[in-house]
Amino acid sequence: MEIEMGIMGNIRTFVRNGVSALRSASSGKYNEESDIVREYRNELDERTSGRSLDMQNLMRDRRKVENDVRVSFNKIALKTNK
């Protein structure tokens, strides 16, 4: 019963957002940004970037991916050896 209410709530929210978007578009407000999009855009614009910072971030991300792959491989290897 609770799952059905969650689904109905999601459908209601979807329809409400659709009607709101249609109302805005019909009144000529096409390029309106939501608050979250505006916040993300400001965050990206304020960020300082440069070659050295990009390289540091790339190396940090690479180490994290390598660690995740190593941990996953070890879990799989240990599971098959049992």
Supply database-style keywords.
3 helices; single chain; mainly alpha; flat
Brief overview:
This protein is mostly helical and 82 residues long.
Description:
It is a single chain. The chain has helices at residues 2-26, 35-46, 51-81. The longest helix has 31 residues, at 51-81. By secondary structure, it is mainly α. The model has no long low-confidence stretch (mean pLDDT 84). It is flat. The protein contains three helices and no strands.
Describe how the helices and strands are arranged:
Elements: H1 2-26, H2 35-46, H3 51-81
Distance between the termini: 42 Å
Structural class: mainly alpha
Mean pLDDT: 84
Rounded to an integer in angstroms, the radius of gyration calculated over CA atoms is: 23 Å
Strand content: under 5%
Can you write the helix and strand succession as a string?
A: HHH
Number-wise, the strands total 0
Largest β-sheet summary: none
Q: Report the principal-axis shape.
A: flat
Helix content: over 70%
- Spans where pLDDT lies below 50 across 5 or more residues: none
Number of helices: 3
